[in-house]
Amino acid sequence: MPKKPIEYDEKKSHYIAATAIIMKKGKYLIAKRASWEKSFPNLWTVPGGKLETKDYINTPKSTNSPQWYNIIERLLQREVSEEVGLKIKNIRYLCDLVFLRPDRIPVVTFSMYADWAGGRVVLEDSLTDYAWVTTKEAKKYELIDGIWEELEMLDKILSGKKVTKWQKK
């Protein structure tokens, strides 16, 4: 008996996004989202964005099978370059989260951290301001809920403490 073809399942579909906490000289880059952004308008965050097929479709596959590896890193390098004009290196995983946008589209976000590798900040239109801050200084900004805890989590990791998961303070 032939198998029924797999159909698109809206319950399993998500946008995939990644953000990068960029480290430079003991500080982290944060940026303010524009007022017209669908999610989190006028709030401060770290650079990042959604995965697009262009992040992999026209590149050689990583194996003989139809798959690509290291796509989140490629996504972050593209998004950081587009959003804030910087180059990054040493990209590492911090945590992940899921949220529903105002239009009810679910988004899976991989929060990563990386070292600044060059360039100066040049903001794209979706961002209106930026600052290099310590975790303590970040408290003065209206951050997207959870970002401050990510910065604190990263501080602990960088100081050699074992951190197992994100926790709300």
UniProtKB/TrEMBL annotation:
Pfam family, one: NUDIX
Coiled-coil stretches noted in the UniProt entry, renumbered to this chain: none
One of the protein's GO biological processes: DNA replication
Cross-referenced PROSITE patterns: NUDIX (PS51462)
Cofactor list: Mg(2+)
Keywords assigned by UniProt, alphabetized: DNA damage, DNA repair, DNA replication, Hydrolase, Magnesium, Metal-binding, Mutator protein
InterPro entries xref list: MutT-like, NUDIX_hydrolase-like_dom_sf, NUDIX_hydrolase_dom
A Gene Ontology molecular function term of the record: 8-oxo-dGDP phosphatase activity
Documented EC number(s): 3.6.1.55
Name of the protein described by the UniProt record: 8-oxo-dGTP diphosphatase
SUPFAM superfamilies per the UniProt record, alphabetical: Nudix
Similarity remark: Belongs to the Nudix hydrolase family.
First-tier enzyme category under EC: hydrolase
Domain Nudix hydrolase: 13-156
